[in-house]
Amino acid sequence: MTWDEIWPLLRTATGETLYMTGASAALAGVLGLLLGVLLVLSDRGGLLPAPALNKGLGFVVNIGRSLPYLILMVALIPFTRFVAGSSYGNTAMIVPLTVGAAPFYARLVETALREVDPGVVAAARAMGASRRELVVKVLLREARPGLVAGLTVTVIALLGYTAMAGTVGAGGLGYLAISYGYERFETKVMVATVVVLIVLVQLVQMVGDLVTRRLTHK
Amino acid sequence: MIQIEKLRKVYRDRGRAVTAVDDVDLTVADGEVFGVLGRSGAGKSTLLRCVNLLERPDSGRVTVAGQDLLALSGGELRRARQRIGMIHQHFGLLSSRTVAGNVAFPLEVMGVPRAERGERVAELLDLVGLADHAGAHPAQISGGQKQRVGIARALAGRPKVLLSDEATSALDPETTASILALLRDLNRRLGLTVLLITHEMEVVKRICDSVAIMRDGRITEAGPVRDLLTAPGSELARDLFPLPAHAPRPGSTVVDVTFEGDSADRPFVSALAREFGIDVNILGGAVEEVGGARVGRLRVELPGGPEENAARLAHLRAQGLTVEVAP
Ligand SMILES: Nc1ncnc2c1ncn2[C@@H]1O[C@H](COP(=O)(O)OP(=O)(O)O)[C@@H](O)[C@H]1O
Ligand SMILES: [Mg+2]
After folding, report:
1. Cβ(B46) to ligand 1 under 6 A?
2. What SMART domains has UniProt attached to this entry (chain B) (predicted)?
């Protein structure tokens, strides 16, 4: 293949990867944040202790985290069909990506929230802050650097997961690398996808680090 | 201003129970600085946290400014807390907010409109001498400055009561002195009632009007500092004036003489020796500045047994000195 033939393929595949990663990162970000906050709130000694809920959530999150992504994706095919109307294609792929990344991010959110100084929370309570204010203005706000750093790790993990999208008929860089680079021995395609993936990961990490540093006042 | 009755708090943890506060009664008068002094683990923080119900006591009553806190609903309690300031050993500042942002926080909680917040924040920072640091983040200022931010923040709701949990324990002696001076000043100028807990005698000496000594969850002694220092058998006095142990020799009597105020300025030892024509042996002594006045204790040995010394001790007592015969 000539570069002229490769370029359009590469451009489309990059677009597909960005679409799948971006959409699932946004969804997993929201879901993971919610789960992480619930995990911290419901903990024994948390702001809203609920041991049963905490155990249940922890269990579900751990299941999500213990399955290799490829298996999770295949196991979720019926669910994906139910949610997305089809179990094939880029949009359908967003469902398992989100389900895989949300528990991962939830644990990172939990860790970030636990690192908030309990003395600050106590001080805010002493000032008469409501639970909502404690969560939004103290916990989430103080944990921002950790939340962004965790999201950066999650986005990079998602970029990796999208490589397996080909298995369920979605596109993206991973599919391109496998179908052209591996199965048709097009070394140039393989090299090009690897380079694009490396650049993407570096970019995500750089932006993530920059934002994290901006938010840190230590 | 603050009334604590029969307060009890037990921590239960996996079958183990720790009685952190054990049947404590305490009354803090309007406008005074009241200190609770005790070693680490005595239950001081728990006691203080029960005053604004950061910890819920197992039993007892807490009344602040006439309000029975345990009878309040969630919302009412939050509003009551907005009128009870609190400062903390490790400051408890939001690292993500500037100094001004930290002081604005309680105003936001109270629902003060944004337009009015700026002015009030400036006023509060001015009060604690931090007007120049409004834009700094907590990580960029010193410990003493952080505590000043904590104090400004605690005063945002114009509280009548300030609770202080070891506010100076993380600070060096010089900074401690300046923070204590600020608290004293606020106490006088704003009529602020201060309930503080500390393990440092220095804090009691410098600013407390009254003190309670806490040990193993119980108050063992309480009252105005001046009274306690001159009260026979007082633990506070014993801690403040550590005197060398001394068993009286046969035929002599060892007495501790506590003097304060006017009596601190009179040469009562030489006067006693002259008056009765005896030799007075000084075994030890200490003089401290407490609440701006000199208070001291002297351990002396007088010749003769109890009968011979009765008149001499009466003579000392007549001068306003507190005299205790050592056992
Ligand atoms: N949250 C808690 N859970 C269990 N035990 C506690 C808790 N807080 C304090 N304690 C225990 O209660 C006792 C009193 O602690 P505290 O009030 O912090 O004392 P102080 O402030 O005088 O050092 C200690 O034995 C401490 O271990
Ligand atoms: Mg303590």
Report:
1. yes
2. AAA, NIL
Residue pLDDT, tens place only, B73-111: 999 999 999 999 999 999 999 999 999 999 999 999 999
Task: Give the CATH H-level superfamily of domain B2-226.
Answer: P-loop containing nucleotide triphosphate hydrolases (3.40.50.300)
> A21-171 falls under which CATH superfamily?
MetI-like (1.10.3720.10)
Q: Which CATH superfamily is domain B241-325 in?
A: ACT domain (3.30.70.260)
Cα-based torsion angle of the residue sequence A86, A92, A93, A97 in order, rounded to the nearest 10 degrees: -110
Q: Do B82 and A127 touch (CB under 8 A)?
A: yes
Q: Which of B8, B9, B46 is the best mutation target for the ligand 1 pocket, counting ligand atoms within 8 Å of the beta carbon and taking the most?
A: B46
Please answer whether residues B157 and B82 qualify as being in contact, where contact means their C-beta atoms are separated by less than 8 angstroms.
Answer: yes
* Candidate from A31-35, B106-110, B219-223, B293-297 with smallest mean pLDDT: B293-297
Pairing of strands B84-88, B2-13: unpaired
Low-confidence winner among A106-120, A174-188, B153-167, B207-221 (lowest mean pLDDT) = A174-188
Atom of ligand 1 nearest to the CA of B45: 21
Q: Which of A160, A147, A186 is nearest to A30 (CA)?
A: A147
Which of the residue ranges A73-82, A107-116, B255-264, B318-327 has the most confident prediction, judged by mean pLDDT? A107-116
Residue owning tokens 């024994």: A44
- Substitution target in B91, B109, B141, B164 with the highest count of A β-carbons within 10 Å is B109
| ipTM score | 0.88
pLDDT-derived band at A153 (thresholds 50, 70, 90) equals: very high
Average pLDDT for B141-164: 97
Task: Find the mean pLDDT for residues B54-80.
Answer: 95
Distance CA A152, CA B21 (A): 47
Which of B284, B236, B278, B277 is closest to B257 using CA atoms?
Answer: B284
Domain ranges of chain A: 21-171
Q: Which of B18, B163, B203 to mutate to test the pocket of ligand 1 (most atoms within 8 A of CB)?
A: B18
Residue B54 to residue A120, Cβ atoms within 8 A = no
List the domain boundaries for chain B: 2-226, 241-325
Rounded-to-integer distance, Cα B212 and Cα A41, Å: 37
- CA B143 to chain centroid: 21
Count CB atoms within 10 A of the CB of residue B139.
Answer: 11
CB-CB under 8 Å, B109 with A129: yes
pTM: 0.90
